[in-house]
Here is the input.
Amino acid sequence: MDQTMERAGNFLPRVDESAGSPSAVDRRVVTLTAPASVAAEQYRTLYYRLERMREAGPMKVIAFTSAMPGEGKTVTAVNLALSAARANSERRILLIDADLRRSQVSSVLGIRGKQGLAELLAGECEHRDVVRRFQATRLAVIPAGSTPEEPTQVLASARMKQLLTAVRESFDEIYIDLPPTLPFADASILGHQADGVLIVVRANVTPTKAINQAVEQLGGAPILGCVLNGAEVSSTPYLKNYVKK
Ligand SMILES: Nc1ncnc2c1ncn2[C@@H]1O[C@H](COP(=O)(O)OP(=O)(O)OP(=O)(O)O)[C@@H](O)[C@H]1O
Ligand SMILES: [Mg+2]
Here is the structure.
């Protein structure tokens, strides 16, 4: 892992199902369900690292991918976008679910409705039909919508480029949940249109070889670093004492 990879790197603890959750929001959205937890603090830490990097230059669009499926991209993107919304009352924050294959943002946040990015890019609806405000927060969300026949083609379209140009004008920070890098071209295509890409790595699961392959596949995309997701707090002495029994 080179030095750039370490700049934004962060440790995100494993969150178990007993964390307690109001409404339809997934328990692992700890930024909302357990804001005082060690895990929520780690998302805030990651957010402020990005803030420090923003001092060096504008960085509006941050995309999340991983080498393989199921490493925690969606949970990380949602928690980071909510950390951003809670940290800055004056900024406009947008989360886009661009995983048109296995979209999870809506179910994790308990957002209803069928229309989303896919319908917007197909020209079947307008921005105002798909941008939802999440509960009483400052977070705006564009859900994925239905899975198109050719997701890669849809994400690589001129319409997607135009959408990113438009949301760059209307929002201060944009977070994009992407599919995994190794199985599809989607992450590489959108990663190149982002200002920064974070690679989520599942603790004790993702093989180093897969991470290296993903970095290679992302080519010249602006990779900010890796976040280690699902690590055991007990293996981290500096956090262990802060976990409430
Ligand atoms: N820090 C964590 N602690 C415990 N469980 C987690 C954590 N992060 C993610 N999970 C769980 O792991 C599973 C995969 O997480 P998530 O959906 O965020 O991964 P993903 O990389 O977006 O997956 P996909 O490739 O399918 O889009 C989910 O059940 C999620 O709740
Ligand atoms: Mg996902």
About this structure: Residues 67 and 182 are 5 Å apart (CA to CA).
